[in-house]
Amino acid sequence: MLSQSEILFWMSLALVPVSRQSKAIKHAGSVSALWERFGKDAALDEIFGDKTEVLKRYHSEQFIADCLEKLVKMNVKVATIYNPYYGELLRQPEVAAPYVLYYKGNARLFSSDCFAVVGTRASSIYGKNMTEKIAGTLAENGFTIVSGLATGIDTFAHAAALNVKGKTIAVLGSGLNKIGPVGNMALADKILSSGGAIMSEYLPNMTATRFTFPERNRLISGLSKGVCVIEAGDKSGALITAKFALDQNRDVFAVPGNVGNIRSAGTNRLLYEGALVARSGEDILAHYGMLRKPAEKKKLPPMDDDTKKVFDMFIDADSVCFDDIVESTELSPKKVSSILTRLEIDKLIMKINPNEFSKNGD
Domains of the chain, with CATH numbers? Predict the structure, then answer.
């Protein structure tokens, strides 16, 4: 287990690129040894380079106490790699996840069945529609949708999960107090109020850089059973997530797009290279053996011509009025009333009010 001091020191390592973190831990032998040897080992100073002086501040007990107090005030919680909520998939060595994560919301979701839905910020209407269909279907069937809270596909993925009353996790490339884009702050609030979570490996007040977004992508895929790239150009960051997913032995799906559309150049290349095809959420569910069998159509009882004439009026209508049935079928009110009663008994229709009926959806 990490001590409180070691936890806070690990937090400070978020200021250092992941490659240097790994190199320092490998040199020291463990996080605990790194804490003990920091400031006494010239080789570590060389590894950390220009970050050494900043890290020394985190080696102070008073600074640690101040940090903890600030975290409480910001309502930011911390999960170490030893926390049961941390997530088994994240603990896998291939993920190279941090020893400490910051989060707000429901940490239990980190151990749930997660699936990542990602793509370009500059999405098309096609990309938006496919995201809503795929993420919505997966969320309805029990997956926690993971994405990065960026504009475009990420935003649509989170929103689609919320629209079907599902759960979603946003993994940030910044600290939790630096949510961006600003236009997505309301979405972040809705994620939390709906039982979701927002997480980051970065200090709460740390702003995003061109390095942090690619780094956080390994956590998006690391949390998840698989990744679906909805729409991505040839240089889209979503392709970095797909690469991490492959390195982490996760499933990679891609949505086929128009070969002439630059927004689909990346996804089409993924498919050419062997990614699984996702034409719908059902394709993904089928891959995991989660596809529900379609409900059998209710077998209709034998009907005479008059009864069929009445029942046919309900096929494409939300509801039908008694008077309209009489007028359309040219049957007597008494006959229509008798037929409707029989259809109610057979549970094929139900009465909404004394003069209005609808088809029974059961």
Answer: 1-73 (no CATH), 105-287 (3.40.50.450), 305-359 (1.10.10.10)
